[in-house]
Each structure stands twice: as C-alpha cells, then as structure tokens.
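Collaborator request, handled under Task 6.
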Amino acid sequence: MALLGLSGALGTLIGIVALICAIWVIYDVWANNKKLNDTAKIIWTVFAVISSILTAIVYYFIGRK
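Structure tokens returned to the collaborator:
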C-alpha cells in the first residue's frame, strides 16, 4: 500500500513538472521569441502540449536563441 502512495505522489509531481514545462515553453515562444514566425510558434506549442518535458529540454537548447 505504501508503494502505491509513493507512486501516486511521484505521478502527481511529474504531472506538475510537465504542466510547468508546457506553460513555460508556450509563454516563451509567444511572448519572448520574436524571431520565430507564426508557423514555428504553432509547432512549438503543439509539441509542448503533447510532450511537455521533452519539448522544454529541446526548446531550451535549440529553440531559444
């Protein structure tokens, strides 16, 4: 039973981190990254919604110039 509680807490933590990552990428793309055209912004937004943590890592190293 204790293992289930830990798993639930870990899942919640990962979910919160994923939500924060998605919000950060979407905000940074639309508010701060003026060099991207609208098509690229839409693509980054879609990827942020689908795979938020991975997209945040990739965006940090590649998309944020």
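The cover message to the collaborator said: "Residues 8 and 14 are 10 Å apart (CA to CA). The chain has three helices and no strands. Please let us know whether this matches your experimental observations."
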